[in-house]
Amino acid sequence: MSVQVTHDKTPGANGILGNLFTRAVGSFEHACAAHAGFARWYEKSFYRDVVEREESMAELPQQAHVLHIGAGRYPFTALILARKGHKVMGIDHDADAVESARRIVRAEGLDSCVKILHRDGTDVDCRDYDAVWVSFHVHPRDVILERCSQTLSEGSTLIARIPSGLGRLAYGSCKADIGEGCRCDSFKSVLVVKGGAADTEALAPFTLDRVPIDQEVHVVEGNGHPHLEPLGIRAGKPVRVCARMPVGGAVLVDIDGRKVALGTEIARCVRCRRSMAVD
I need a labelling partner for 109 at 20 to 30 A (CA). Which of 103, 124, 165, 229 fits? Predict the structure, then answer.
């Protein structure tokens, strides 16, 4: 028996739009691989925050063993996690992408903790990993997600980047069957699956600065910061993140219909929890 995860009622992927998205991603990765300065700017301005937010959701132990399916031509995720002390195995079905990723890993001096293999994500065995990352553009996505959830060890985490917004029109909804023994939590563009015990306990708390835009969370605690209580930010209060300024800027949140801008340091004091039931 399994639990079907369906994020919306959008019909299947539009082939033309999906191909355009895939080509755009490929062109962007080519540009990053060819221009190291551009890749470093993109990582600092955007990608690092994305991966750090996902790392918080995954609750990784120190020196975790991570599998990344769909590492890509420029393996941003693997590099960022490796710099944080984790061991990463990246796989991709595109041989050219694998060779490019290996060159970049060597150039970054991280070949002792990042390995890139030419493999298909549909036959992976996730039992030896503390966490598994699945990239947005992998195909066939639902088959890969089902395979990962079936082989995920108890206590390990699956982080899957899923389509949202225009991406759903290009790639379709996520309709993978996630095993009953897994705990599943969903954000706007990230599916988090915990292997093992079948319970409904929410993910461990994370800080407000890591909440995706347009997501509503419930405050767990404000860590005693004196400015939070006057703003109405207290335990149990629902808060929605409306926007986030670039490069570590303020976080704009909605509290009881009021828009409030919080500095990054204050947002990091607010611990939140988000749990979504899987029907």
Answer: 124
